[in-house]
Amino acid sequence: MTRSQSSTRLNRALERFRKLYGDGDVTVLRAPARINILGEHVDYVSYLPTASLPFGSAEHEMLMLFREGCDGAVRGASMNEPFEPFEISMMDESFSGEPWETQIFSRPAPAPHWSNYVKGAVFFARWKHGPAVDRGVSFLIDSTIPADSGASSSSALVVLAGAAIRLANGIAYRPDELAGKSSQAEWYTGMRGGALDHTAICLARRAHAVHISYSNQEVNLVPIPGDRYRWITFFSHPAAKGGEVMLEYNERAAVSRLLIPAVLDDLRRHSIWFGEDWDDAVSKMAGDVATSCDELESLLGEIPESITLDEFARQFPAAFRECESAFPALVAAGRERPLKLHDRSLHHLGEIARMAAAIELLRGTGGDRAMRALGELLNDSHESLRSLYEVCTPEVDALVEAIRRDPQVYGARLMGGGFGGNVLALTTTVNAPALAARVQKEFYAPRGRDARSEGSVMVSTPGDGLSILSA
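The structure corresponding to this sequence follows.
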């Protein structure tokens, strides 16, 4: 999007805002689309030192125009007509001094609605800061991030709402703190994800990727070549985060946070050698990731292929009670279905190896050979997400195949939570228009779709994260 197009878009949004809420000062916040290069479905893993490598799109964004109010009401609207206006009160729900997760996990997930992401941010701020949060906001959203696409429009909305409610009430925040709090706030919706999206949105910087290490909460910037290469996302179909899809997301989060760690702890208790070998292999990651991953893969062969929640409850009653508390809908959906453990663990381990290789490539001499090698890592990640994590759909795979038929595509993979959403492709700047035309002809047109009018193709370069714009 050119600067003049962005300015025209903002002017239209300002005109709509004033029609809705009247004249007066307006603050404009910007959050970028999150583009994740590697490290998918690992931000909620608790038993291995995982990492991700996202960046914020310079070209695609969500804007929140807002004005503070004095009546404790939050009023929201969107330039996207299907998202109907809503109004809530900060007093609609009350929270005690108990931990946020204790209270949120004990409640049923609300019925799907875009206001839930705002409610999560507002109610978390109210829980965290108490009476200091008594001023509401009126806001309007204008976004070029497709909803349910895997580019994290939902997390962008949570971050923007969290920033707006704090600014309206004079509460200072650091971007890294807001990222962590926003990830917890999003649990209100029923999702139990990690902080990848929120961290990228808050901490992104132009011409860099954000290297997020989850085990020690370290964040570092890694330069990304920008002039000769382009990252393009192609939207397949919506990945609606309700019903069965939410259960699928949360199943993988439960397996990664609770089930696999419980099984590993049991192996350590019953085998001294297992614990010693595991600790030794993990310690090697600081200097020799390849050897470490080989050894860990062998050790992970000791865990079962799958386990039902009934079996888990009998073998690990304390861990099951924690699972029942954090994932009540998953437990209620059925305790007899086998939940895969081994395949999920191999995906986690594979992403660790791919992440380490990507960082080495980007911090090395660079050049076309390095970018082609990076593209192969994307291909490997997609295969892992498809066969080990099972978050692909036939439509997503068909889109990946159409993209990879272009010889100037270095790599492509599913990006985001899966079950639809975006496919990320790496290609050259020169080839980007031809690739978009090819995919329109071979994938979208046969399905009666026009990717351009839908806004289903996003070309991105690494840009800045959360920021305040001048209105």
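The chain is about 45% helix and 20% strand.
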